[in-house]
Amino acid sequence: MIGVPRSVLWFLGSCLVLVAGLGLWQVLADSGAIPRAFFPGPDRVWTALHRGFSSGAMIGETLTTVRRMALGWALASVIGVGLGALVGLSPWMRTYVAPTFEGLRPIPASALAPLAVLAFGLSDGMILALIAFGAVWPMLLTTVHGVASVHPRKAEVARLLGLSRLAYAWKIALPAATPDILGGLRLGLTVALILAVVGEMITVQGGLGARIMIAARRFNAADIFAGVALLGAIGLLTNAALSQIEARLLRWTHR
Amino acid sequence: MTTVQAARGPETPIMAIAGASVSFGAARVLDGIDLELRRGEFVCVVGPSGSGKTTLLRLLSGLQPATTGTVFHQGTVQNGPARGVAIVFQDYAHALLPWRTAAGNVSLALEAAGLPRAQRADRIAALLATVGLAAHADHFPAQMSGGMQQRLQIARCLAQDPDVLLMDEPFGALDAMTRQKLQDEILRIVAASGVTAFFVTHDLEEAIYLGDRVVALEPNPGRVGAIFDVPLPRPRTQLSTREHPEFLRLRRDLFDFIQQFEP
Ligand SMILES: Nc1ncnc2c1ncn2[C@@H]1O[C@H](COP(=O)(O)OP(=O)(O)OP(=O)(O)O)[C@@H](O)[C@H]1O
Ligand SMILES: [Mg+2]
Questions:
Q1: Of A60, A71, A41, whose CA–CA distance to A211 is shortest?
Q2: Residue ranges around ligand 1 (CB below 6 Å)
Q3: Do residues B174 and B146 touch, judged by C-beta distance below 8 A?
Q4: What is the pLDDT at residue A56?
Q5: What per-residue confidence (pLDDT) applies to B6?
Q6: Nearest residue of A to residue B98 by CA position?
Q7: Tell me: the pLDDT tens digits for A190-236?
Q8: CATH for A41-253, options being 1.10.357.140, 1.10.132.100, 1.10.3720.10, 3.90.1150.10
Q9: What are the sequence ranges of the domains in chain A?
């Protein structure tokens, strides 16, 4: 195997596993061991996807879900990183406010969905609020931790140079916390996708979540699987995009 | 404000510690310290581990307040860190910003001083050239050797345009060859900039090689045990200075002094 980079081998290997998995799925579906009504094979899912995309409906729904996910995630990021920096940089807030976060964090966001419906109606606003509430915690907690655990030497350097508190936050604490913060943003991304779908299933105002919901009412298993496959693809792609950004932002950590 | 040094002529010590002590809780770490730094001199500090060398340096920097007594900088009472007093820390890896390039790290000091962006580039280039890092302006600290990172920290300190440069075992983590090279560089930089140097070290020979005076601390609590004048000619060179009879005599005296406190 001389001359073939390891990464190429990894890639080929994972492709092989994927193909084998699809094959197994097809065989299982064709065997009829599980009723076809619940368990379509990849061929029928592919047909459903093809039909959905050629009619144009699925593209719009995918974009709707991605847009909601991205907006909710961005909202959570701004709140999480902003508030996290504020709390993490103030010893007073760290003592009195941070424990409240720990108390609120375990609340499942989906449990608050009815409350969000009451406040915002069956609307985009409700979905955004739901995502923001659920996705904000990992970002908030990693930011608090990140800016609070800057090495004390760096704080001394800032004091010696006479940096203002704002300059310290912007030039030292936040950059130092970037690896932590990016970890929180990544966790939040997964939560955002989940809650976008949950919200769409509740509001049924377009999007892949609504599409899956409607397909289920029509007992159209192939369409459900098609929607789920698309959600998987969204998760995969957005994660890959964030990894790219991360690699660029964390260039300095590589030796 | 009590001003012991009324006059501020060239005779005024650039820094002075008067009757200062430092305690952490009940533990008295420094006691009855009286010390003056004259303008432009190179003062080295030695002493057994735990004798308070770092605490003394932090006292001068303003990072560590005196429990009793007073610290003066330029004839006035010093109440906290001032831009005129810079520190080169031993742990350069923590003192530098790893997400900024060499140029960016020097820039931090200029940004803090409010220097307009347009004027920064030239200053940065000049400072990096002073410490021999002109070719590494775009490198991140992680891409640089320990010696280079320490040079970078020195450049950032110089960017503060300090009149006092405090150094806490700055070369302690470096190998012997790099150490000697940096000793000569710091002598050249200090001479060229006219800054007053205060240099803590474990290495008695390093203290003699660099210093105009060597302050030896006694432990428990930390006190100034003795001050040795170093009448060796400058410029100093690694081979001949270290073979100078005066160098050998001082090494003997300092060694005997420190030896009393070793268990
Ligand atoms: N922040 C602190 N709180 C409590 N004790 C401290 C603190 N800083 C230093 N000490 C104590 O003060 C004494 C002197 O410490 P210092 O670091 O100044 O010694 P040093 O001479 O620099 O030692 P070394 O040669 O090991 O660097 C030590 O006993 C140390 O434990
Ligand atoms: Mg020390």
A1: A60
A2: B 24, 27, 29, 47, 49-55
A3: yes
A4: 86
A5: 47
A6: A252
A7: 999 999 999 999 999 999 999 999 999 998 999 999 999 999 999 99
A8: 1.10.3720.10
A9: 1-33, 41-253
